[in-house]
Design a protein that fits this description.
Elements (H helix, E strand, L loop, with lengths): L4 H13 L12 H18 L3 H7 L4 H8 L7 H10 L5 H13 L15 H12 L2 E6 L10 H8 L7 H14 L10 E7 H5 L5 H14 L5 E6 L13 E5 L8 E6 L2 E3 L4 H17 L6 H11 L1
Parallel strand pairs: 1-2, 2-3
Antiparallel strand pairs: 1-4, 4-5, 5-6
Length: 306
């Protein structure tokens, strides 16, 4: 049996009211935007209205409708009202719920205070990272950001093109605050595959690297953290091209989001076939890497060899 429009509205209303919903303080606007965008896209398609027609209604382009439906930008309540009218949504409860999502889509996350060092493409990632229920990552060069010690993170950030001391320290503070997501009451499950190269590269010197490896051993014992090592002995594997992160938004209705970090930006492949390709790649990685039960012994061995 299909889900009725009224049942969907009730579900969205429950999300808005839930204390764990990302519209609440701390997790930012990214997921509310994605939920609202997906709902508006379904309503438009059910109404047989094109993106071009929808754009005209709110005095915008087809590309803006696309960005709104992908959750890549905030919503003006007036635009949402106009679109709901265009799509024939008359139920007051549903309209109120979607307008509440529109307001939440413009509430800045806690990292807004770092707006001077956070580019727009990273804003999307931070919102997903803070709201995700599962974060799966593969790192080739460095220890994943959520697992970095302060000393290690400082050494990594100094490699960037902007070496101004004040801005570097602000980036460091942001990275350390991001780690708190693993300490909250209902943390995401972080599943990280780390290439052996990252573990043997002594960022910041031997002493800092030892502290980083010891931290990995400690945090790897947490029930919501799984760490695997991709050893040199594994040879080639599907992710040799670079780091990949796959984030699962809350609620169960939104698709996984793939994030590919690059030197001067981030890319979010969003075609279903592309997302599925990266999901499959991550599944292969966890099979080809050393099993989680072998991680601590592997880290201890690397420590002894430093």
């Amino acid at each position: 049996m299909g889900v009725t429009r009224q049942e969907e509205a009730i579900g969205e209303r429950d999300l808005v009211r839930s204390p764990d919903f990302p519209g609440h303080r701390g997790t930012g606007p990214t997921v509310p935007r994605m939920i609202l965008g997906a709902r508006l896209r379904r309503l438009r398609e059910e109404s047989g209205i094109t993106g071009l027609e929808a754009g005209r209604r709110i005095r915008a382009s087809h590309s803006k409708i696309s960005r709104l439906e992908m959750g890549r930008t905030g919503f003006k309540p007036r635009d949402v009202e106009d679109l709901l009218t265009l799509y024939g949504v008359t139920d007051e409860a549903e309209r109120a719920t979607l307008l509440a999502l529109a307001r939440q889509s413009n509430v800045p996350g806690w990292w807004h205070v770092y707006h001077d060092i956070v580019p727009s493409w990273l804003n999307v990632y931070l919102g997903l990272e803070q709201a995700a229920t599962v974060i799966r990552a593969y790192e080739l060069q460095f220890v994943p950001g959520l697992l970095q010690t302060e000393g290690y993170a400082r050494a990594v950030l100094r490699l960037g093109p902007d070496t101004a001391e004040e801005r570097a320290e602000r980036r460091l503070r942001l990275r350390m605050e991001r780690r708190r997501v693993l300490e909250r009451g209902r943390p995401p499950h972080l599943w990280a595959v780390i290439d052996e190269a990252a573990l043997r590269r002594p960022m910041g010197g031997v002493a800092l690297m030892r502290a980083q490896l010891e931290h990995l051993i400690e945090v790897g014992r947490l029930p919501h953290v799984t760490i695997q090592v991709m050893p040199f002995a594994a040879g080639g594997h599907p992710a040799v091209g670079g780091p990949v992160t796959v984030l699962r938004p809350p609620g169960g209705d939104l698709p996984d989001v793939v994030y590919l970090e690059q030197l001067t930006g981030g890319v979010y492949p969003d075609k279903p076939a592309e997302v599925e390709l990266y999901r499959h790649m991550m599944n292969r990685l966890v099979v080809e890497a050393e099993p989680p039960t072998a991680t601590e012994a592997f880290l201890v061995r690397v420590l002894r060899e430093l």
